[in-house]
Amino acid sequence: MYEMYINSFVEAIYTILPTFGLNELRITSLEVKEHMYTNMEVTVVIGLMGSVRGNISYSFSMESAKKMVSAMNMGMPVEEIDEDVRSALAELSNLITGRGCKIISNNENYTDFTTPTFIIGKDVYYLMSKVKTLAINVESEAGEIQVNVGLEL
Amino acid sequence: MNMEICNTFLKSVDNILKEMVDVNACISTDFYPEGNEVCSNGVCSIINFEGKIKGRFMIDMTQDAFLNVIKSIMGRNFECAKDMLILSAIAELNNTIAENAVANLNNKYSFELKLASPTVLVAKEALVCIDKIPSYSAICKTTYGDIKVNVAFNEEALTNV
Asked: I want to staple B101 with a disulfide (CB 3.0 to 4.6 A). Which of A69, A104, B12, B135 is the partner?
């Protein structure tokens, strides 16, 4: 069951990122962690509700966040993480999560998701799930995205 | 209605802190607007909710205040805030507070709110934001230290409720 949910979000990443011209995607690591720690400065957290309860987060370095938004804006340069950049990253996170939830719902497991919450800071230690967190590192032309999925199954 | 929603969460904080942590919270400030960016003091627990309105409930405190609260819950000292066990305890506290508040709001206003799982974070400096959704904060003074209560929700949805 856990694999089904994880595969849904991995499939969503591989579906959504190429729509912004990011085609060279590679999963560089996939591991189960007791807790979530990231040294990346920008994290978007989205809550999941319905057939499964939990959280999914997308972490970016400052540089990869700017490059990601630049790719979403047809290559327009991005100088700083302002409200427009946060909106774009929130939209990207919404698209991936929404796609993942749709794939899950196709398997007759209804899942909905909340508004994204941004957390900006260095060396942030997280608890996202009472159980375990699965960490997926995805390498792209815009840099690395750390996806953490914490589900209460 | 904005303040009624915020005060429902605040009342829940007061009730649950008394029940679970055996501490009286003295509300030292009324809710004040904090925009859509909130700077964490060290340890914060965030729980998002969705329904006829959507938003976030957050409790935030310094690491020292957090360790004091944990000592009261767990009955012993902990040296470091980055401990899964005690972070789970604060997540559970946040969850209980939010469940209580959301139940009251659903009963009174039929908001049909559901909660996601809590997220807890520990950082020296972290900024927490939900864009385009303003938030309101109040400070509770306790014997363990100050606890900031922050509630964010999309006010424009209230006109449709």
From this structure: B12
